[in-house]
Amino acid sequence: MSKLVKFTAALLLSVTFANAESTQADAKALVDRGVEFCKKVGVAACVEEFNKPESQFVKDDLYIWANDFDGIITAHPKKPLKGKNMYRYKDKAGTQLFKDFIDKVKADGSGWVDYVWDHPTRGEQTPKTSYVIGIGENQLIGAGVYK
């Protein structure tokens, strides 16, 4: 292979992997799109869509999940968490992230919450931040990005 071909291939690979993980702007835009979808189809129908692994709200490492204000997961397309109460769950740093999601939505309507979560390719808990917002009377949705 010529040096130019090798250089071009290496450059393309580095650009691909540099952009592999989503940004906070991507997460917020996905959640905002999810909110608009929920307004059109209703909370129950949108939560059903968020549960699908092939949902329009799943893109690589970015996806929307939902939980109610009791901490029960109502949608998670990547892990079998639907129906589980995660209110008391703590990450390795001791953060009760689902409680924090609920508290953020109740206090501010929406916002960012920092925590650690299992990274899908690194196989370890990694710093993450999620944008959360309330939908309906007792539900929130969110999407997060690894830092």
From TrEMBL:
All residue ranges annotated as the Single Cache domain in the record: 18-99
The record's listing under InterPro entries reads: Double_Cache_2, sCache_2
- Entry superkingdom: Bacteria
Subcellular location, record wording: Cell membrane
* SMART domains tied to this protein: Cache_2 (SM01049)
The membrane topology of this protein is: Multi-pass membrane protein
The record's keywords, sorted A to Z, are:
Cell membrane, Membrane, Signal, Transmembrane, Transmembrane helix
Name of protein: Cache sensor-containing signal transduction protein
From what organism does this protein derive?
A: Arcobacter suis CECT 7833
